[in-house]
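Hello support,

Our group uses your service weekly, and this is the first time we've seen a run hang past the timeout. The protein is Protein-export protein SecB. I'm not sure whether the cause is the sequence or the server load. Input pasted verbatim:
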Amino acid sequence: MADDTDAAQAPQPQFNIRRIYLKDMSFESPKAPQIFDATTQPQIDLQLGAGAAQVGENLHEVVVNVTATVRSGEDTVFLVEVQQAGLFHIEGVPAEQMGWVLGVTCPNVLFPYARQVVSDATVAGGFPPLLLAPVNFEALYQQHLQRQQAAPADGQLTH
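Update from on-call engineer: The timeout came from a worker crash unrelated to the input. Re-ran successfully.
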């Protein structure tokens, strides 16, 4: 009976998106315009990560980092770097579930925006759109947890 009363009085979890914003973006095509005539098949190197920081009471900034480097032989065709951020009000979520919310839920909200910025930047740079495949942030978070168990944590959530 006491458990029912405690459960009824427990705060309901709240998750609100306060703002989604482009924190940083750069695009470089160091060999343009000569690289537009390249005929070799380009190679794409994609680096992806996410991080979170508490910036106020129940307020968290989550940043998804995307770096795509496209090469043709030894030449860099272009390099695009995007930091897509969001400000999330998260309240009443049990501490043991916060890592999941910050490492999976929030990046899943932000990634489509980062994907669009990467595509738009490559088109503005004179190239076909670079369309990033969907990302399984749940799998990335699980890998992060496994690495954390193997090494001592530094207190910063990144993956």
